[in-house]
Amino acid sequence: MEFNWIEDFLSVAETGSFTRSAHARHLTQPALSRRIRALEHWLGADLIDRGSYPTRLTPAGELFRVEAAAILERVNAARALVRRHAAAARQAIRFALPHTLSLSFFPHWLTKVHARYGVFASRVVAGNVHDAVLNFVEGNSDLLLCYYHPAQPIELDAKRYPFLRLGIETMRPYARRDRARKPQFTLPGTASAPVPFLNFSPEAYLRRVVDRILEASPVRLHLSPQHETAMAEGLKNLVLEGHGIAFLPQSTVAGDVRKGRLAAIGDASLAAELDIRVYKDSRREHAGVQRLWAFLEGEA
């Protein structure tokens, strides 16, 4: 049994809706349903009356709701106490962030912070955007670094999770330079000769940003999809090998553009700006996080 299942159940009990609870818990509705089923299997009783609408609890569910809330409160209090002691002892600040930022933006940003604020111990947990947000809201990291685009917002409660803007990232298409130092491919392409297109996989946050750029393009682009991956570094390497063009964050390609390996293609209509934000949990912050946040506020 996992305590996340109890939190899932209590959320459904409070909202009376699998849909709203799945959104609040940053889960898909099928995933939330599977976790509730797993809890019911562990308990040996149905907690949700699935024959009613809106969602209601069974008598067993009502009984467990009271006990579950008390159990969870005690466990969370114990965990918070232990974590405060552990955090004070190690003084490490835990960052959750997407792979792309962990490989491109974060190392340079950390160097600048160390130079101006001072050196501190840190730990990075990198994953996709969904996993990074979940890691953060479940209390497994102190700070969340992520992209933000108005058309694809990260929905966190502003009072509990305040943020600071650390910078701006530009997304635009890039192609490899040939021996004559000209882009290997140019846009918009033609119907008879479409441009080979490398894209993020559908579940990737940056894929949805790319989709928005393409939807808003004033010129019809002729693209031939070739390959998909969740990682910006993977796309960049495919572009460097000449497999096609890709929309990439500026920080991911800065070194290769400087060295003349890659070139930006297309005009400004094919570019999008994303904020790079850092979030904290105002209910879970040890002294080291508070000091760093105060410094970052002064730098913002």
Automatic annotation (TrEMBL):
Pfam families recorded: HTH_1, LysR_substrate
Origin superkingdom: Bacteria
InterPro entries noted in UniProt: LysR_HTH_N, LysR_subst-bd, WH-like_DNA-bd_sf, WH_DNA-bd_sf
Alphabetical keyword list: DNA-binding, Transcription, Transcription regulation
Residue span(s) of domain HTH lysR-type: 1-58
Annotated family: Belongs to the LysR transcriptional regulatory family.
Protein name (Swiss-Prot/TrEMBL): LysR substrate-binding domain-containing protein
The species this protein was found in: Tahibacter soli
